[in-house]
Design goal:
The structure is a single chain. This protein has one domain: Aldolase class I (TIM Barrel, Alpha-Beta Barrel). It is globular and about 45 Å long. Helix 11 links the parallel strand 7 and strand 8. It is 44% helix and 15% strand. The two termini are 16 Å apart. Bound molecules: phosphoenolpyruvate. The site of phosphoenolpyruvate has 13 residues, from strand 8.
Amino acid sequence: MRKKIVAGNWKMHKNYKEGIDLIESCIRLFEKEKNKTTEIIFCTPFIHLHKASKLTDEHKHIHTGGQNCHWEEQGAFTGETSCAMLKSCGASFVIIGHSERRMYFNETHEQLAKKVDSALKHNLIPIFCCGEPLEIREANTHLELISKQIRESLFHLSKEQISKTVIAYEPVWAIGTGKTATTEQAQEMHAHIRKALAHQYDLETATNISILYGGSCKPSNAKELFSQPDVDGGLIGGAALVAEDFIAIANSF
Ligand code: PEP
């Protein structure tokens, strides 16, 4: 059975104290919910990760993750962080291929494939992001682009490996813009991704992979988005920075 997941992508926000306060508030609010059906993940900046993992350690449904990683084990890569380093700080997830990394840091399909490999090697679950810019959506070639993004960076994986990944569909035109994909647009793409997974692997494998939606997801639209049959949760940017909003989204199933 695939999991329901709500992951917060903090991006480059919150100093150390602010970040730890946010995690403590989220835990307090989330723990009020008795019947938890959702896994929540804090994808924090690296500086928070160790303490965040300590705070979430004893909470079965709460996890931490990085927002990026390097594919090499170690070496002269100033400013980079390896998967082994993330793991040693208690992370169990890592976001790979966020559109901001593709856009501002020119990350390629090939590099992302190597990051996915390294994450899996170190027992980190990759949250692999895909998504189309506005001009691609307007040209009506979005389904093809997403197929290409997942094919080039994920389809070299074995069935066992792909089963350990999470995919996040994040239309670039909806990230941080206040514009959300309609439930129909989200469902169409999620079903498309699942169909591609079933074609490459098999139906059972595809059925068990969680596919998250990201892009201006907030408490007011989460319920409707999460009610779609192929939407298994969300990757949340702005709303993950406010404890009440993030936990309201997590409780929206
Ligand atoms: C994101 O950056 O992953 C994201 C979904 O951002 P926002 O929720 O702010 O649109």
